[in-house]
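step 3/5: co-fold with glutamic acid
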Amino acid sequence: MIRTRFAPSPTGYLHLGGARTALFSWAYARRHGGRFLLRIEDTDTERSTAASTQAILDAMTWLGLDYDEGPFFQMQRLDRYRAVVEQLLASGHAYPCYASKEELDSLREQQRARGEKPRYDGRWRPENAKGKVPPPGVKPVIRFRNPDDGVVEWDDLVKGPIRFANAELDDLVILRADGVPTYNLGVVVDDWDMDCNHVLRGDDHVNNTPRQINIFRALGAELPRFGHIPMILGADGERLSKRHGAVSVMQYPEDGYLPEALNNYLARLGWSHGDAEIFSLAQLRDWFDLAHVNRSPAQFDPVKLLWLNAHWLKQASDDRLAQLVAPRLAAVGFDTARGPALDTVVALYKERSETVVHLTEAVGIFYHRPPVPQALRDAQYSRESTVPLNALASRLQSVAWTAADIGATIKAVAAEHGVKMPKVAMPLRAMLTGQAQSPAIDAICALLGRDETLARIDAERPHWPQ
Ligand code: GLU
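step 4/5: write tokens
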């Protein structure tokens, strides 16, 4: 059975690259009827925070990426890592190293001065440390004894064959002096224990993989398959970062995006299924394969994301959108209990909104009386309109209050006064919405209700030219 995992470090918010890794790992497991695990890699105790962990969990929930096992927390598994380190020490695959920071810094300096790549020189390898007395009071780190010769190769599920010479790898620290494992040890022990047989992650980890493979081998553990997903770049070709705008996943709901849109966008970013551009999580689950993950980096395109959001907003039910809009209106002090039912208003506007934020701004006019800008008055109110508008206002007092009847009345009034329809409809729109554009004005009247429609007209009457 295929088992994948998402293993973020809670050292910051979940960014788009992380979310895409999670999405691909989730989709791969689901597609193959496998299992998907969530593991929080919190061994960087200085940079890990509870808030970041929460942001990751929130983002997974918001995106709808359900996991079958976890969340596991590495800091709750310290005993297990230490036991594995004991095993590696006993088998000669690891050894204590007492080199001080100063010593290692100066080693690095010397290597640089000689034009060499800085690397640990194996000074505390048992054969080099014979007769050396460990400095008193120093707790050693534990290093993995990397093989000196040969190559490490794997057939990457995304990038194809990759190989590293062992000569390029040095003896990495696997356990810090305080007994906390480093990433490369924790990840191997966990992928082994949790039986993660397909490891999909960002290609910033390609350099770690040969080290991890060597540790797997030293433990006699079966190797997972690895797939490294190219990173996401900003429009300027640089790696996506804060400079490129909202990159925290949880900023997107804040900014009025729907999870369908972000999932759709992220899935399509670096993966393709024929020429399909729009697909749901369920379709991704049915279609996802690694053969169609791009080998080159993908470029983030906020305009396309917005376009997808507009699409998914149209698909969303009025009820759901009303629930997203209601707290936003309440936050700016609008009482949605006084005014038309929010779902009916949302229905009228969702076709023309790109985000929930736009939608909220648009429907606000039903719950407070919008000011009419003077420039709009100047543009829309004219002597030609004043007489038909007066006539319309009195006719609206008795017409049946449906969009169809209201629309017919506006038409009839315009015809009776020999003016084109917009001469009546446009100033009416300005009075009711404070805007030059809106959905059909008869539909707006119908939703606003007779009293409020007439009240808004009356409030603007003093501005009509006589
Ligand atoms: N914890 C690592 C990170 O957040 C990911 C490790 C992995 O997927 O192997 O970059």
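step 5/5: annotate
The longest strand covers residues 35-40.
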